[in-house]
């Protein structure tokens, strides 16, 4: 089915001017960018976005990192967009990521891992809503 998923190009990637290279990988996988905006997340926005990880030991560092510089938030659309995006991103830890994936090519560490992608249809919908209104998404 045609799905939408939510993607973030993280601060480590915007800092290294990789917005285009990462978007190209997403597009080459067949995903379409149907909404995109460059923002600086506030600490509160990052806290809310990663609320599911609030009890994890890495939560504080994660919130600090995600609000440390510009990010590009995107809505991606396509056939099985959620799993396709996870496939092209590669494993969370770049040392486990398959060759040719975004994280294998670009990520610096498990924290500075260049991209985020929704892990389920439910989360995709919630995450998209945190950053985009329906009229800002043009399929
Ligand atoms: P992301 O997909 O944005 O979701 C949560 C982020 O926490 C994850 O990518 C990683 O960058 C970061 N993180 C740091 N340590 C861990 C860990 N042990 N397990 C999962 N995610 C981690």
From TrEMBL:
Record: residues binding ATP: 10, 58, 86, 92, 103, 113
E.C. code: 2.7.4.6
Span of domain Nucleoside diphosphate kinase-like: 2-139
Keywords noted in UniProt: ATP-binding, Cytoplasm, Kinase, Magnesium, Metal-binding, Nucleotide metabolism, Nucleotide-binding, Phosphoprotein, Transferase
Any one GO molecular-function label of the UniProt entry: nucleoside diphosphate kinase activity
Main localization of the protein described in the UniProt heading: cytoplasm
Membership in a protein family: Belongs to the NDK family.
Protein name, as recorded: Nucleoside diphosphate kinase
Species of the source: Pacificimonas flava
Gene: ndk
